[in-house]
Structures are given as structure tokens and as C-alpha cells.
Design a protein that fits this description.
The chain is an alpha/beta fold. It is built from 15 helices and ten strands. It has an eight-stranded parallel beta sheet. Strands 5-7 form a two-stranded antiparallel sheet. The longest helix is centred in the C-terminal third of the chain and has 27 residues, at 298-324. Bound molecules: 5-thio-alpha-D-glucopyranose and manganese (II) ion (MN) (2 copies).
Length: 389
Amino acid sequence: MADKYQPKPEDKFTFGLWTVGNMGRDPFGEPVRERIAPDDIVRLLGEVGAYGVNFHDNDLVPINASTPQRNKIVKEFKAALKETGLKVPMATTNLFADPAFKDGAFTSNDPAVRAYALQKTIRAIELGVECGAGIYVFWGGREGTESDATKNPVEAIKWFREAINFLCEYVRDQKYDLKFALEPKPNEPRGDIFFPTVGSMLGFISTLQYPDMVGVNPEVAHEQMSGLNFMHAVAQAWDAGKLFHIDLNDQKYSRYDQDYRFGAETIKPAFYLVKFLEDVGYSGSRHFDAHAYRTEDAEGVKDFARGCMRSYLILKEKAAQFNKDKEIQALLKEITGGTEKWKWLGGGYSKEKAKRLLDEPFDREKLGARGLKYERLDQLTTELLLGVR
Ligand code: GLT
Ligand code: MN
Ligand code: MN
């Protein structure tokens, strides 16, 4: 019998070259795994059943590669894409690894660094478009400070806006079919990073010259680092029409950026997230921005990648079960009932409605005395997830 959790292209599961290619280096230890060439990563992803592969410019082409070297690498990479049928839905720029970016890229205090960051991004956009990318991610990993003596945040926000506006214009000029997705993170590698949460990024987008071209790329771990509810952040992005991409992974709350396998740690929040994405019909990539534990060898990396996709599909199945569960649905109906009586108040303000509302007699004590049965509903959800329903 075919495995019902075998990923299919329509699941839109993607990984970055930097995720399965992660060599397991950390601030205290040297790499534990060999480097894998980009075309071999593509084959590895094809083997485990992914739909696509994403990259930073320098995941594919080393920062100091000559033009002939670049062309050779891209040719081999494209051949591997053709061979496996994998797509490149997203690309991005590495604006954080090189020492030139030690004080940020678009928000560096040095105007020459800001200009270089813009040039590097334009070149990386060219590379992404050449490989078929439709989404371009901006993760401002070093756009921040350790000491607030060093940078004026209002200036930094203006520089960042200028850069994004410039790049939007460039993309329009070239007539590329490309949208931008900005990825927030509260800290690490900087002490503080500007635009730390999905909410702050959404606020910033509305100040741009071409806000329709720009959305967000929320990452599970980045909101959880701040102790926030990721699904709520995603819901706000969705409501604003800004959920252009998503980075799935996991981690223990309020810690450093752990980038664990999706579903490795916070099963219940992961369930509500998958249920949300499936219920609303999110059609973008399900990108796993995570990497295998440092304990793993090459086989362990495949276990990691398969685990991300398998957990997503299991949680998707659980979400469908939740939506079909008679007892759960009856409780939900009860909880959200009573709308008929108050229908007249919907659809916006009118003088008449305000008057009618002010005349309405409310039984406050009765409202407060009603038990909501949320304990029951939550327990049923827990039991469903634990597989005893
Ligand atoms: C880096 C970071 C991620 C970003 C990637 C895109 S790179 O691994 O931790 O959250 O999404 O630049
Ligand atoms: Mn990410
Ligand atoms: Mn992360």
C-alpha cells in the first residue's frame, strides 16, 4: 500500500539549499557534516519528495566566484532541476555572512555598504529570476544594533524603506513577475533586529511606495523566540493579504533560534497552524527553514527532511478529522451560535443602529454566568492529537 504521508508536488513542500545543506556548525563547534554541492542537494530533495528548492545567491554561487565559474554552477544546478523536476519558487540574498555586512546591509551606517547591498541584491534577483523564482525574500539578519548609541532607528527605517522602494522599482522596470516577502526576527545574530515581529513588518509595508508588491515571510521560530503565538501572526498577515510565503520549523519558546524540524517541539501550535493554512486555502510554498540536529550524518539529514513533510501531512489529516468530528463541531456550533439575533448590528455603522443598540436591555449577569465549555473542547482536541479519538 502506498504511504499516505508520502509528499506530493501539490503539497508545495520546499527546502532551502542552506537547510538540508547545513553543515552543523554552531557558535561553539566546527562543522559535523561535509559540504554538499547544490546540484546534489537538489537530487537529495528529489529523493525525499520535495516540490522545490530555494536559495541565497551565495548558497549557489560563492561570493568570490568569477563569471565563468558562476555560469558553470548555474548550468549544473539547472540540469539537476530538470533531471528531478524540482522548482525554485523563492530566492533571496545573503546580506549577513560577509564581514562587509557586520553592521547590517540596507541599514548599515556606512553608505558604501548600503550601496553594495543594493547592488548585490539586484544581482541576486537576476539569479533568482533566471531560475524561475516568483517570490523574493528579505531577511534582515544584521539590520539592527547591539548598542543603541550606534544607530538612529528612524534613519535605519528610512534607509530600509529606500532600499525596498528602489528594488521594487527595479523589478517593475525589468517587468519581472516577482513579489517581495519580508521576514522578521527579534534578535540573533544582532542584539536587536529592526522590525522584530510580523506585526511590525506589516506596519512598515503600508509605508512603502508599492505596498502591493510586498508581503511577509513569517517564520515559526522567530515569533516563538519572542514568546508570541505564531498562528495569530500568520492570521493577521493572511487577513491583510500579505501571506506571500512561510518558513516552517520549530523550537522551544523564548530561546535562541533553534530551527528544529517542523513539529519537533510544539505539536499543538503546529497543529493549529497547519489547520489554519489548510482551512483558509493558503496556496503558497510550505517552506521548511530548519536543519538537522548537529548529531546527524547524511542519512539523518534525510530523516530530518522527511520528518518535516510527514509531520505536516499528519497534522493536515488531523485538521480534517477535527473539522469532521461531530462532538467537536457541535461544541463549536454552540460556542459561536446566537448570531441571528444580532445580525442587524453587522455591516457597519448607522444612526439607527446606534440608537437601537443604546436602547437594548442586556442581562450582564447572565452573559457572565454562561459556561463556555472550552475545557471540554480543548481536551477533545488534545485527545484527537494524541490519537485516541
Ligand atoms: C537564515 C535565517 C532564516 C532566513 C533565511 C533567509 S537565512 O537561515 O535564519 O530565518 O529565512 O535569508
Ligand atoms: Mn527563515
Ligand atoms: Mn530561524
